[in-house]
Design brief:
The structure holds 2 protein chains of 2 kinds. By secondary structure, chain A is of the alpha/beta class. Chain A contains 9 helices and 11 strands. In chain A, strand 8 and strand 9 form a beta hairpin. The longest helix of chain A is centred in the middle third of the chain and has 15 residues. Chain B is an alpha+beta fold. The longest helix of chain B is centred in the middle third of the chain and has 22 residues. The relative contact order of chain B is 0.08. The chains are: A alpha/beta, B alpha+beta.
């Protein structure tokens, strides 16, 4: 009773997972979004927020130095943790829970995943297990360089496909921060790719209090690419009191249109 | 947008009478009084139409009933048979409506929204009426459909046997207006006082102001004013959890008793396949869709399913059915889908499939705690904790952790937090001393000008 078409579909699903072939009504359901609460991100750059059931990418430019991608990732994770469980896959090994707490994160709702081997494939597989179990928000911080370093990490692309499939099935939010050069498989899997480029430090009384970041929609399967907007990633004061935590960590700069003249130090990291 | 409420009332002879007729078919059409032997000091439970024509009424003493109708047959009520009939009726109606209330003389169904197999309300009502008639094997079923329970009941009463009376939305007051006041559940004293004033029909009462009635009769007067306009009293029909989706046979089943809704006992999804389908890929798609829909409803109700049944309705052949009681009851679409797929693989399908039906029964509480309604996905907290525990067992305790702020952080920024095991008891599962020293510096720590200030203990409660 099976037709050549059904056999071909079954073969594709076996090889690449269920997410590769979807019906029209499934695609329409996937248009739901998680609003970030940042008007620039929700209205100008995306259609309402980060898409549910899809992989979103924060990609740093090719130039070295700070880009703000990890700070933005952590700020959005902190915001999400106040309303849902967040899984933070820390492949970059740079997560400071204290910094997240300063951003206002609810640490009780934040699971930090660090694969012992540090391999991408293993971490993506662990994240997939948690997403399948029902984790609704996943943040992935990828380190610069090739997957697995010089030794390589064979098979990580397949784990990535598995993760994308789980994210699609559970309608979870998945936000990946990656440095240049972004692996082609990751770029291909992302439905929304935002370029994250530093535009200068924000200083006050001689201290750096934040980073100005220019976000560009590099590629989007859920909207139009090419849009650009600026954000101020304000660093929270360490050991801040509750009143200070209430300040917004990310400020929309599109309305103010301030001129950025400061230079970005090349040695500073993400 | 929620569909307008539509409620069906099906009136039938008392179930005790139906049970008596089932045991003694020769009594059909004869005067029958249910309640026991005539010499017993018991009230009449039910009476057939012939007995009622002779003046017998439920609640009368049996002796009086015998005096009024000496030719009547007096039979005892078979409680077991009545309970069996009630259960069967409930079972049958639950396949047709999402919310059902079954009584001894009337049943109410929620017809709000649309039914997958009966898209039009008249056909849906006919299906319910036929279902009741077939089960009770009695022609005395009368059906009323209206926007409120009260008007549906009155419409059924006015419809007569083998009739369906539908009251269009907004016409409830006009329907009730010419009826006598005793059509409504009104206190006899109030009815007598109103009749003395010449207000002997519902419309006359409805034209009065709410304040006048309330001043005269207190809360009962205000209640009467609402009823005269065809509105239900408070708590008479529980809020219907409408989703705006079409109700499939075996849809959400809530058993309603005494005005309180209970969780559903079983759920079902049915997908019609036009023209019959023999393609396994299409069947897989249909079952997958049913599983996801059911899983979503399971999540919404916070339940797990103990028994899963997959029925494939075949073209000109008996339906193929397979049932399983999985070891781990599924509580979501992702968990239900593998079980449904296993059932589909086990079915033998000799003919094209015209419809796929996935049913789940034995619904039980999903978790033993109150879900945090303000946290998205909190119902999956145990599953996430379980998955994290499995990952820790496989990859080591440092693979998945949860951070908690230290009460006394000390001098070093890395001591501001401690690592704890994920799970509900994360507070007591700290790894102790792990701190944050084992990883790279905090993000942004290398940035110029960012300096740590004096140590101030930060309580976690302040963060919220």
């Amino acid at each position: 009773m099976s037709t050549p078409l059904s056999q071909a579909l079954a073969t594709l699903r076996r090889r690449y997972g269920d997410a590769v072939i979807q019906s029209g009504d499934t695609l329409s359901r996937a248009a739901a979004v998680w609003p970030t609460g940042l008007p620039t991100l929700d209205s100008r750059l995306t259609a309402g927020g980060l898409p549910l059931g899809r992989l979103s990418l924060l990609a740093a430019p090719t130039s070295p130095g700070a880009s703000g991608r990890l700070t933005l990732l952590q700020a959005l994770s902190a915001a999400a943790s106040r309303e849902r469980t967040v899984v933070y896959l820390d492949l970059a090994g740079s997560l400071d829970p204290g910094f997240l707490a300063d951003l206002g994160a609810d640490l009780e709702a934040l699971l930090v995943v660090r694969p012992p081997s540090g391999r991408w494939g293993e971490g993506l597989s662990m994240a997939r297990s948690l997403v399948v179990a029902g984790a609704p928000w996943l943040a992935v911080a990828l380190p610069p360089g090739a997957p697995g370093g010089s030794r390589g990490d064979p098979g990580w692309e397949h784990r990535l496909v598995g993760l994308v499939e789980a994210v699609s099935a559970r309608q979870a939010v998945c936000l990946v921060a990656a440095a240049a050069p972004v692996p082609p498989a990751l770029s291909y899997a992302a439905s929304l790719a935002l370029g994250c480029e530093a535009a200068g430090w924000q200083e006050a009384h001689g201290d750096v209090v934040g980073l100005r970041t220019r976000l560009t929609v590099l590629a989007s399967k859920v909207g139009a690419p090419g849009e650009t907007a600026s954000l101020l990633l304000r660093y929270p004061r360490p050991f801040a009191t509750a009143g200070v935590v209430g300040r917004p960590a990310v400020v929309d700069l599109s309305a103010t249109a301030e001129t950025v003249r400061a230079q970005v130090p090349a040695a500073a990291a993400g | 947008m929620s569909p307008p409420p539509r409620i069906l009332c099906a009136r039938y002879p008392h179930l005790a009478l139906v049970a008596a007729w089932a045991g003694h078919p020769e009594l059909r059409g004869e005067p029958v009084v249910v309640g026991g032997a005539a010499e017993l000091r018991l009230p009449v439970l039910a009476a057939s139409a012939a007995a009622q024509a002779a003046g017998v009424r439920p609640g009368q003493p049996l002796r009086e009933a015998q005096q009024r109708c000496p030719a009547a047959a007096f039979v005892a009520a078979d409680e077991t048979a009545v309970a069996r009939l009630r259960e069967a009726l409930l079972e049958r109606l639950c396949r047709l409506a999402p919310i059902v209330e079954v009584g001894d003389e009337a049943a109410y169904c929620d017809l709000s929204g649309r039914h997958a197999a009966h898209p039009e309300e008249p056909r849906w009502a006919i299906a319910v009426a036929r279902s009741v008639t077939d089960l009770l094997d009695d022609d005395g079923v009368a059906v009323g459909v209206a926007s409120s329970r009260l008007v549906a009941g009155v419409a059924a009463l006015r419809a007569g046997s083998r009739r369906i009376r539908r009251i269009a939305p907004g016409e409830e007051a006009a329907f009730l207006a010419p009826l006598p006041l005793d059509s409504l559940p009104v206190d006899a004293g109030i009815a007598a006082r109103l009749a003395a004033l010449g207000l002997d029909c519902v419309g006359a009462v409805a034209n009065l102001s709410s304040g006048d009635l309330q001043r005269q009769f207190g809360p009962a007067g205000k209640d009467l004013w609402h009823r005269a306009r065809g509105e239900d009293g408070v708590g008479e029909w529980p809020p219907v959890p409408r989703t705006g989706r079409s109700a499939a046979p075996g849809g959400d089943v809530s058993l309603v008793a005494g005005g309180a809704a209970s969780p559903p006992r079983r759920l079902g999804e049915r997908l019609l396949l036009e023209g019959g389908v023999g393609d396994l890929e299409a069947l897989r798609f249909a079952v997958h869709r049913c599983a996801l829909e059911l899983g979503e409803r399971l999540r919404r109700h916070g339940r797990r399913a103990a028994v899963i049944t997959l029925v494939c309705e075949l073209d000109r052949a008996e339906p193929a059915e397979l049932r399983i009681a999985p070891l781990h009851p599924p509580g979501s679409g992702a968990e239900l889908w593998p079980v449904a797929l296993e059932l589909l693989a086990g079915l033998r399908l000799p003919a094209p499939v015209t419809a796929v039906r996935l049913e789940i029964e034995g619904l039980q509480g999903r978790v033993g705690r109150q879900v945090d309604l303000w946290r998205h996905g909190d119902a999956a907290g145990e599953e996430i904790s379980g998955a994290a525990s499995r990952l820790r067992a496989r990859f080591g305790s440092a693979a998945v952790r949860r951070a908690a702020l230290a009460v006394d952080p000390g001098d070093l920024p890395e001591r501001r937090f401690r690592w704890a095991e994920p799970g509900p008891d994360a507070g007591g599962g700290a790894d102790g001393g792990d701190g944050g020293g084992g990883h790279a510096p905090a993000s942004g720590a290398a940035l110029p000008g960012r300096r740590r200030e004096a140590v101030v203990p930060v309580m976690p409660a302040l963060r919220r």
